[in-house]
Amino acid sequence: MSHPLKYNITPIERGVLLSIWEPAPKNEVRVRPFLFMVKCRLMSEVDARRLLAHYLSVYQTKSQALEIQ
């Protein structure tokens, strides 16, 4: 079962902010609409897209390994 990740690249002073998260419905325990969120400050959008591509490749590999088990 694969869960889609969402991302956003936002310009900030001296670079960009890359946010990556896995959406999930809020409930009595989960007060935010995501399972996790990662935020990274980077120097450029090129750096952000490079990190995003790496993160997604690792995430997909790990997700596929969990599905096989």
Please describe the topology of this protein.
Layout: E1 6-12, E2 15-23, E3 34-42, H1 45-68
Antiparallel strand pairs: 1-2, 2-3
Q: In short, what is this structure?
A:
This protein is α+β, with helices and mostly antiparallel strands and 69 residues long. 35% of the residues lie in helices and 36% in strands. It starts with 5 loop residues before the first strand and ends with a helix.
Structure description:
The chain is α+β, with helices and mostly antiparallel strands. The chain has one domain. Helices cover 35% and strands 36% of the residues. The protein contains one helix and three strands; from the N terminus they run βββα. The chain has one helix spanning 45-68, and strands spanning 6-12, 15-23, 34-42. It has a three-stranded antiparallel beta sheet, with helices on one face. β1 (6-12) and β2 form a beta hairpin. The relative contact order is 0.22. The model has no long low-confidence stretch (mean pLDDT 87).
Mean pLDDT across all amino acids: 87
Distance between the termini: 12 Å
**How do the helices and strands follow one another from N- to C-terminus?**
EEEH
- SS elements, strand count: 3
Structural category: alpha+beta
Helix content: 25-40%
**Residue share in β-strands:** 35-45%
- Rg measurement, Å: 14 Å
Individual helix count: 1
Largest sheet: 3 strands, antiparallel
How many domains? The number is: 1
Q: For this entry, what is the oligomeric state of its chains?
A: single chain
Uncertain parts: none
User: How would you describe the shape?
Assistant: flat
Spatial ordering of strands, largest sheet: 1-2-3
